[in-house]
TrEMBL record:
The lineage of its organism: Eukaryota, Viridiplantae, Streptophyta, Embryophyta, Tracheophyta. CDD domains: RNase_T2_euk (cd01061). This is Uncharacterized protein. GO terms for biological process: RNA catabolic process. Pfam families: Ribonuclease_T2. It comes from Brassica carinata. PANTHER family: F7A19.32 PROTEIN, RIBONUCLEASE T2. Belongs to the RNase T2 family. May remobilize phosphate, particularly when cells senesce or when phosphate becomes limiting. Keywords: Disulfide bond, Endonuclease, Hydrolase, Lyase, Nuclease, Signal. The active site is at H62, E116, H120.
């Protein structure tokens, strides 16, 4: 090899020392999950409003969950990375409005956020720290005004029954992405619109089409419960 060849080879080797291959985040995509409080409360009966008061009649956040393309998901990935409320003190009032807890007994919400961070958030710690995890999730919530999308399509939380396909169509038309819908049953065995899942890329910031489409856990007609 001539002098020029050696120079190029050395340059490439030198660069190789400093350019690492893209890091595997340890999961394939996120589910961003919103919950309808009317269904949670109607089904659980024993739902409790947070200490800050009755949440708005709007979709709240359930969580941002790292997932694998085969449908499985990692959980509780780092017991050493405990939830630390002091890291999210600037976000608490927004979390109370957009990520309210409905579990009993009434509490401020920290238990729910702690659970979501420790079970799901720690599995994406290669991509974002605690503050970023909550900040990104809140930002995703701001990008889809689900209630407005549904009511704009005549689908309202009035205890009426709607077609699953109409709900999905309205959301797809407004956001560009097909959601996954999850139902639960109230004590009278009515299936109710409970959770809406969107898929998000591994940076936790961009919506994507879901790499896998789980079976709908809803019948063809479902109730949109009042709250
Ligand atoms: P995950 O579905 O994220 O694995 O677990 C949800 C956990 O958070 C449950 O243990 C549940 O009791 C608790 N939790 C607290 N508040 C809420 C809420 O408003 N909605 C839901 N779905 N779970 C809540």
């Amino acid at each position: 090899m001539g002098g020029k060849g050696w120079f190029l080879l050395k340059l490439l080797m030198f660069q190789g020392l400093f350019t690492s291959p893209p890091q595997d985040p340890g999961f394939d995509f996120f589910y961003f999950v919103l919950q309808w409080p009317g269904a949670y409360c109607d089904t659980k009966r024993a739902c409790c409003y947070p200490t800050s008061g009755k949440p708005a009649a709007d979709f709240g956040i359930h969580g941002l969950w790292p997932n694998y393309k085969d449908g499985s998901y990692p959980s509780n990935c780092d017991p050493d990375n405990e939830f630390d409320p002091s890291e999210i003190s600037d976000l608490v009032s927004t979390l109370q409005t957009k990520w309210p807890t409905l579990s009993c007994p009434s509490n401020e919400g920290f238990k729910f956020w702690e659970h979501e961070w420790e079970k799901h958030g720690t599995c994406s710690e290669s991509v974002m720290d605690q503050h970023k995890y909550f900040e990104n999730t809140l930002a995703l919530r701001d990008r889809v005004n689900l209630l407005q999308i549904l009511t704009g399509a005549g689908i309202e939380p009035n205890d009426e029954f709607y077609k699953l396909k109409d709900i999905k169509k309205a959301i797809k038309e407004a956001t560009g992405f097909t959601p996954v819908i999850n139902c639960n049953k109230d004590p009278e065995k009515n299936s109710q619109l409970h959770e809406i899942f969107f898929c998000v890329d591994t940076s936790g910031t961009e919506f994507i089409e879901c790499p896998i489409i789980p079976r709908d856990r809803c019948p063809s007609h479902l109730q949109f419960a009042k709250f």
